[in-house]
Amino acid sequence: MTGKLDPVIHPTHRLRICAMLAAGTTLELSIIKDNLDLSPSALSKQVAALVDAGYVKQERLGTDSRRVWLSLTRQGLKAYRGHVAALQEIVAATAVPPVQGSAAQA
Hints:
- By secondary structure, this protein is mainly alpha-helical.
- The protein contains 4 helices and 3 strands.
- It has helices at residues 12-24, 29-36, 40-52, 74-94, and strands spanning 26-28, 56-59, 69-72.
- It is elongated, with a radius of gyration of 18 Å.
- It starts with 11 loop residues before the first helix and ends in a 12-residue tail after the last helix.
């Protein structure tokens, strides 16, 4: 196995946060909140775990200090990619090949 499951990223909401950040580079916290349908306190807890691990950077940009922006750090991107690779390896190793000559292929 070349990937490595990461216990910080593994919880579903954290995995989804990392996936959104990996796809969007830098996102406003409100966008993540709307997509995950989490309460502000639940989202804050999930983001704090990622920030504490050094996986996510949290910033206030511009003049509006109420707006919070999140981005993956290099360490976070590496951990996310390793976690996804490990999940893909697990799925690939347990996938059942199609039965040749079965009615399902007809």
